Amino acid sequence: MTCAFKLAEAQENALQLYLRVAYQALFDRFPSLILGMNERDIPWEYDVAFIRPASLPVAWDCKPSTTVG
After folding, report:
1. Burial of 42 (0-12, 13-18, 19+ CB in 10 A)
2. Tens-place pLDDT, residues 8-31
C-alpha cells in the first residue's frame, strides 16, 4: 500500500465522518426534516475526489408535534 493510497483512504474516512456529523446536526436541529426518499435510493457520486451524495432530497414532516414544553 503506497503512502498516497493511505492518505486518500484517511481523507475518505475523514469526509465520511464529517458528513455523518453534519447530517446528524442538521436533522437534530430541524426534527421535522425528513429524507425525501428511502436512504438506500440516495444517488452517490463516485467520480469526484471523494464519495458523496449527488443530492439529498428532504421534506418537512407535517405531522403535529406531540412534545409538550
Report:
1. middle
2. 777 777 888 888 899 899 999 999
Question: Cell numbers at residue 65, please?
Answer: 408535534
Specify the pairing of strand 44-45 against strand 33-35: unpaired
* Cβ neighbours of 35 (radius 10 Å): 14
DSSP code string of 1-61: --HHHHHHHHHHHHHHHHHHHHHHHHHHHSTTEEESS-GGG--EE-SSSS-EES---EEE-
Distance between CA atoms of 42 and 31, rounded to whole angstroms?
20
Alpha carbon 39 to its chain centroid, in Å, reads: 10
